[in-house]
TrEMBL record:
Cited CDD domains: RRF
Stored SUPFAM superfamilies: Ribosome recycling factor, RRF
Gene Ontology biological process terms from the UniProt entry: cytoplasmic translational termination
Cellular component terms (Gene Ontology): cytosol
Coiled coil: none
Record's function text: Responsible for the release of ribosomes from messenger RNA at the termination of protein biosynthesis. May increase the efficiency of translation by recycling ribosomes from one round of translation to another.
Alphabetically ordered keywords of this record: Cytoplasm, Protein biosynthesis
Gene Ontology MF, one: ribosomal large subunit binding
Protein name listed in UniProt: Ribosome-recycling factor
Annotated compartments: Cytoplasm
NCBIfam families: frr
Pfam families hit by this protein: RRF (PF01765)
Keyword Protein biosynthesis: yes
Amino acid sequence: MSLATHDINEVEKRMRASLDALKREFSGLRTGRASANLLDPVQVMVYGSRMPLNQVATVSVPEPRMISVQVWDRSNVTAVDKGIREANLGLNPIMDGQILRLPIPSLTADRRQELVKLAHKYAEQSKVAVRNVRREAMDLLKKLEKDGKMSQDDHRGHSEKVQELTDRIIKEVDSTLVTKEAEIQKV
């Protein structure tokens, strides 16, 4: 029985991992407001290799519609500028010594709709991942019952717990989506 009890914690951990991945995806979606997370995917070619931007510069948000990138080594400013432009984030850095300023342009209505669709796609992928974890857990419970390591009543009880957990995580995915959608639509 301890195997099945321990299993529910592992199931929850795996489901939460897909929710966390969704939140990371959402943090990269541009909403018309500046966010330091917006530059997370940027890679910069410095010292003969590709490095994440946060390893060569400090990213800050001095104003709601401006991102500031303080490059630590003056010789890397051009490489950081190029890395930001190549990331296709729709941002045009303005060089000011060792600081790059990135004004965040306001979103058009069409772009907002595209971002909402993308948010829905990310949320659906997260739900599919949660359902896959649920299916694997249910298959394991069936196998344990079939092998005689779990009674039918225990199987039913554990199955209900897995289903309740699935419903709760899917509800969290939906509420995260609603919040992100409102943030994108906000002018």
